[in-house]
Automatic annotation (TrEMBL):
Keyword Endoplasmic reticulum: no
Residues annotated as domain Sphingomyelin synthase-like: 271-338
Entry keywords, A to Z: Lipid metabolism, Membrane, Sphingolipid metabolism, Transferase, Transmembrane, Transmembrane helix
Membrane topology: Multi-pass membrane protein
Descriptive protein name: Sphingomyelin synthase-like domain-containing protein
The keyword Disulfide bond appears for this protein: no
One GO MF term: sphingomyelin synthase activity
Transmembrane segments: 35-55, 61-78, 128-147, 159-184, 282-307, 327-345, 400-420
InterPro entries named among the record's database cross-references: Sphingomyelin_synth-like, Sphingomyelin_synth-like_dom
GO cellular component, one term: endoplasmic reticulum membrane
Localization annotation: Membrane
Length: 424
C-alpha cells in the first residue's frame, strides 16, 4: 500500500503555535483545543507507523542519535556548572550593584514604541513563541518522516540537530565563563540564587581591589601582578560531596540549598548575569535552519519571522543584550552549515537502484542495441522490484512499535532537558 506524501506539515506546525497562543486569549478554549490537536496528530502518526518504509535507515541512524543525545546532555551539564559558577564567583552584592551595559538595540525598540501604531507594538510585545515551541516544532519536523514530508531517516536529522546544539552550548559556556558580564536584570540573581553576598577569594584577590579605582587598574597593568590585599569575609560553606567536592569552589553552595550537588545544579536554570550568546536564540535558529533545509516552503519563512520576533522580545524584556541575540543567529547558521555531514547525502533507495543498474548495465545496453523494448521494460522492472524488496526487508511490526516508543521517549527527554536549562 502506497501512501501519498502529506503536504500539510507547515499547517500543522503553525496550528500548534496558534493554538498554544490561545492560552493568553482564552484559557478555556485553549484547554479544549490543545488536547484535541495533539490527539489528532498522535492518531495520524500512529496510523502511519506500520506503513513506514524506512525503518532500516532509521535503525542505522539510531547509534549516532543516541551518541548525539549523550553528547548534548553532557554539554548541558557543563553549561549548568558554568552558569552557577559565573553567578556565584562575584557574589550577590556585585549583581545588585553593577549597572547593566548600554544596549543600543533596546534603545531602538523603546524608540519604535513611540513611533509605531499601538496595535503593532502589542504584536511585538506578545508572547507568541518561546523556547519550548521551537523544540516542539523540531519534533514535529522529525516525526514528519512518517508522512514522507522530509527525507528519511528522522533519527539522522535528530542526531544532527542535537550534535549541533551540543557544540553550540559548549561554545556558549566557554564564551560566557571567559568574561563575566553584568546582567540586564540586576535584581535577578538575588531573587533566584542563595550564593554568598561576598565574592570568592579569587575575585577578592584579582578583581575586587582594582575594579573601581582607575589608578589601581593602571598600576596592575604596569606591574602585571596582583598587589592589593583581600577583604575579610566569612568562610564558604563546605558540604561533603565525596568525589564531586572539587565543584564546591565553582558552585559555592549555601547551607540552605541542601547537600546534593545535582539538586543545586537543577536550580541553576538559565542564570542571571548576561550569558553571551543567547541559548534560547541558538535553539530557535537551529530549528529554523532544520526546517529550511529539510522542508522549505512558506512555513520556513514564517518560522524565521518567529525567530526574529523572539529575538526582539529577548531584548525588549531584558533577558539578553542585543549582541547576545545577534551572535546567536550567525553562530547557529554557521554551526548548522558546518555539521552538514550528518545529513544523509542521498536517498538510500536511489543508491540501491544505481547499484542494480550497474549490475545489469551490459544487458540493458545490449537490449537497447537490439531494439528489444520488451527486454528493456523487464530489466527496468527488475531494478524497481529489487529496490522495493530491499526496502521491505525491515524489522517486525512489534519491533517497529517498540522502536517508536523508544524514539519518542528519547525526544521527550531531550525536550525536558532543554526546558530545564532554558535561559528565559
Amino acid at each position: 500500500m502506497r501512501w501519498p506524501a502529506v503536504p500539510g506539515l507547515g499547517v500543522a506546525a503553525m496550528s500548534y503555535v496558534a493554538i498554544d497562543y490561545v492560552r493568553h486569549i482564552s484559557p478555556a478554549w485553549h484547554e479544549r483545543l490543545q488536547p484535541a490537536l495533539w490527539s489528532l496528530l498522535a492518531l495520524i502518526a500512529v496510523i502511519r507507523v506500520p506503513f513506514y518504509k524506512h525503518w532500516t535507515s532509521e535503525f542505522r541512524a539510531a547509534i549516532p542519535f543516541v551518541a548525539s543525545m549523550v553528547f548534548m546532555l553532557s554539554a548541558l551539564l557543563f553549561e549548568a556548572i558554568s552558569v552557577r559558577s559565573v553567578t556565584a564567583v562575584l557574589g550577590l552584592d556585585w549583581h545588585r550593584d553593577t549597572p547593566p551595559l548600554p544596549d543600543s538595540g533596546q534603545w531602538l525598540l523603546l524608540a519604535l514604541n513611540e513611533k509605531l501604531p499601538p496595535f503593532l507594538v502589542e504584536i511585538l510585545r506578545a508572547r507568541i513563541i518561546g523556547l519550548h515551541h521551537f523544540l516542539m516544532l523540531f519534533m514535529i519536523l522529525a516525526f514528519s518522516v512518517l508522512f514522507d514530508s522530509v527525507q528519511a531517516p528522522g533519527l539522522g536529522l535528530g542526531a544532527r540537530y542535537m550534535f549541533t546544539m551540543a557544540i553550540g552550548r559548549l561554545l556558549r559556556a566557554i564564551t560566557f565563563v571567559s568574561t563575566i558580564l553584568p546582567s540586564a536584570r540586576p535584581w535577578c540573581a538575588a531573587s533566584r540564587f542563595r550564593v554568598p553576598a561576598y565574592p570568592h577569594h579569587w575575585a577578592q584577590k584579582y578583581y575586587i581591589p582594582y575594579a573601581s579605582d582607575i589608578n589601581s587598574i593602571r598600576q596592575i597593568i604596569q606591574q602585571d601582578i596582583a598587589y592589593a590585599g583581600i577583604g575579610e569575609y566569612p568562610a564558604d560553606y563546605k558540604p561533603d560531596w565525596g568525589s564531586m567536592s572539587f565543584l564546591i569552589d565553582f558552585l559555592r553552595p549555601a547551607a540552605s540549598e541542601g547537600s546534593s550537588w545535582y539538586n543545586l545544579l537543577k536550580k541553576a536554570g538559565g542564570g542571571c548575569n548576561d550569558l553571551l550568546y543567547s541559548g534560547h536564540m541558538l535553539v530557535a535558529v537551529l530549528t529554523a535552519m532544520a526546517w529550511t533545509e529539510a522542508y522549505g516552503g512558506f512555513s520556513s519563512a514564517l518560522i524565521w519571522l518567529l525567530v526574529l520576533h523572539s529575538a526582539q522580545r529577548e531584548i525588549r524584556e531584558r533577558h539578553h543584550y542585543t549582541v547576545d541575540c545577534i551572535v546567536a543567529i550567525y553562530v547557529g547558521i554557521l554551526l548548522w552549515k558546518m555539521t552538514g555531514f550528518l545529513w544523509p547525502a542521498k536517498d538510500a533507495s536511489r543508491g540501491r537502484r544505481l547499484t542494480k543498474l550497474e549490475k545489469i548495465q551490459s544487458r540493458l545496453i545490449q537490449a537497447a542495441k537490439d531494439s528489444d523494448m520488451e527486454e528493456v521494460r523487464e530489466l527496468l522492472k527488475e531494478v524497481e522490484l529489487g529496490s522495493q524488496e530491499s526496502q521491505n526487508k525491515g524489522p517486525s511490526r512489534a519491533t517497529v512499535m517498540f522502536a517508536s516508543v523508544v524514539i519518542f521517549s528519547a525526544l521527550t527527554i531531550v525536550f525536558l532537558a532543554f526546558t530545564w536549562t532554558s535561559d528565559g
